[in-house]
Amino acid sequence: MIKNITFIILALFVMKVSYGQGKTRADRFFEKGDYRNAAKYYEESIAKERHKSDVERIAICYYNTFQYKKAARYLKLLVNGRFGEKDKGYDNIYNFKLYQVLSALGDYETGLDYFKRYKENMSEVLDKNDAIDIIETFKLKTPDYKVKKVRFNSEASDFGAVKVGDSVFFTSDRDNKQLFGKTYKWTHQPFLDIYAVKVDAKMDTVGAVNVLPKPINSKLHEGNFCFSKDGNTLYVSRSNFTNGKKEFNAQSNNNIHLYKTTRTGGKWGALEKLPFNVNGFSYQHPALSPDGKRLYFSSDMEGGFGSFDLYYVNINVDGTYGDPVNLGATINTPNREHFPFVSQQGHLFFASNGHLGLGMLDNFVSEWVGNAFSVPINLGVPVNSPYDDFNLNYYSETEGFFSSNRKRANDDIYSFTQNGEIFLREYINTFEVRDFETKAYVPNAQVSFFDRKDNVLYSNTLDSIAVFNMNLLAGNYQLKAKAENYFPGSLQVVVVEEQDQKHVLYLKKVPPPPPVEVDPVEAIIVKKKIDKKLEKEDPKRFEMLTDVEGPPIVEKEGKLFFELEPIYFDFDMWSIRADSKKVLDALAAKLERYPNIHLKISAHTDSRGTVRYNQILSERRAEATRNYLALEGYVNARRMKFQGYGELQPIVPCPMLDCTDEEHQLNRRSEFEIIAY
């Protein structure tokens, strides 16, 4: 996505780096914005001698061209001082970039370490655990949207779709066959223009995609735009022109400014630069309020909170404009806020990389409440991904477009249908405690209800009708209950975005005592040959070995293991079988009672297939087992390690594959070692 808005913010990334030597060929490409060629020559320079300035610039080159693995490599070299100069200092922005690329690559936990460092260098505080909780909450939330890639995308970058009547207008750098057409050095693609295509009710194209004529499009960039409600006024971001000539700032950069044109008699008039544009800064991504009285936009003008902020200007009755007003610290961050859109309800949708997200730019929404915008909410998947997701807008109450480069380096347009409630709402939930066998209410049940951070939200002793109600936000909770003559029980509760949900916790009765009283702990001590000294020497180990509830814990060669029924997998598969889910559910329940236990999950395959294939298969099986316990059993993933051993440790050796299906089945297994408690 970045390349499609960076014609707007190119100056941000051309860092002023002091060189002890003259400009190299790589430097000249870099300063022209040709990052692909610059990276090639910086690689050659770094292979000979690793200068800090070269490391900085090659990291920017790969960052700006979406090669995040390579960008992460050089950013790590930079922040760890792996360059020749004695001065190991570096600009704090590189901590932020490393956080972004690591998150985009899926390692957001490590990325948050650098985001924390970035914040601390600005005298701000970030609680990593809280940040992880926030990210995991919107990663795992029930999706509120269904999305689909539209058919009028091209192999080039397409983004910024807006529907007006039966036509969709959008921005693209596709080849429009202009004679002697120039290309943009950053992308090596044509400059951005605005296109239009007619569509039917299914968003299929009707006829050809056409580039809009002059005066709307020019030889340089035309970017994001918006129409007035009647479709006869167009606000557009474009390269800064004055009297038909490009205008440059003090750094010799051509900024982006906002222009306006009106349509009269079916023809668009000349583009008029809006009066609040100031040379030296960029103004972009226009969006009108539903009543047409405010124009929102993104700008890096002086006095903001950081890189690019969201602003608005009032549009007066006489057509003049007020002064730009910053939307404030609730919306804006020290990083980038772009692509505003205001819904018919007055809610603000925008893209940001400064609020916690999944990686690069994410789509957010801020609810209009009490004449102010609320704290932004990350819209989650599927409208967000680890890559750039942006430019979300609605053309009806529940339908609209957004853009993303999640599938490749170039941007694509996606349509969406909203099918959930995007704002936090409380939902009615009913809880019951019943007998496992008879399904009757359990009288006098003592219940406790917890949120995902183990805060007690409700505690009470119920009467003969074991029912209580609560209004709850969507999320994960836990209900615990106990009663006389019943085993204590717990229920993991998932509250979804709908009304009238019911959750039932079934308690099992304690069976009558056996005819001969036998102390179960003493029986286990005898059976397992446990030295009673262990109770004083290692009371937790003694407790686990003598625990009679749930899967037993046994000792083998000095190590502790959960003794479970085998977790089997079908041949060539790594999905958890139905017969094994009950086994893992029981394990999850026991792990809940021992929150300090850390596991190592070992997965093994049979000997069919190559050694390499079996190794990969076993790793996937181990990961699938860990994921089931984390997502379905609500066991904290940080308590579990996993490792695949392939075919290297069979229970039944199978030379020349001379094993029965049953013997192969025995070899396809998982083991659960307790590595810390």
What amount of the residues lies in strands? 25-35%
Largest sheet descriptor:
5 strands, antiparallel
How many distinct beta strands? 39
The dominant shape is globular
How many distinct helices? 14
**Terminal Cα span:** 46 Å
**Helicity range:** 10-25%
Rg from alpha-carbon coordinates: 31 Å
Query: Could you say which structural class the secondary elements and strand pairing correspond to?
Result: alpha+beta
The oligomeric status of these chains comes to: single chain
The overall average pLDDT, rounded, is 87
Low-confidence stretches: 1-21
Q: What labels would you give this structure?
A:
677 residues; alpha+beta; five-stranded antiparallel sheet; five-stranded mixed sheet; 14 helices; 24% helix; globular; disordered N terminus
What does this structure look like?
InterPro entries: 6-blade_b-propeller_TolB-like (IPR011042), Bact_OuterMem_StrucFunc (IPR050330), OMP_bac (IPR006664), OmpA-like (IPR006665), OmpA-like_sf (IPR036737), TPR-like_helical_dom_sf (IPR011990), WD40 (IPR011659). By secondary structure, this protein is of the alpha+beta class. The chain contains 14 helices and 39 strands. Strands 8, 9, 12, 13 and 14 form a 5-stranded antiparallel sheet that branches. Strand 4 (183-184) and strand 5 form a beta hairpin. Helix 2 runs antiparallel to helix 3 and helix 3 (35-48) runs antiparallel to helix 4 (52-64). It is globular. Residues 1-21 have low confidence and may be disordered.
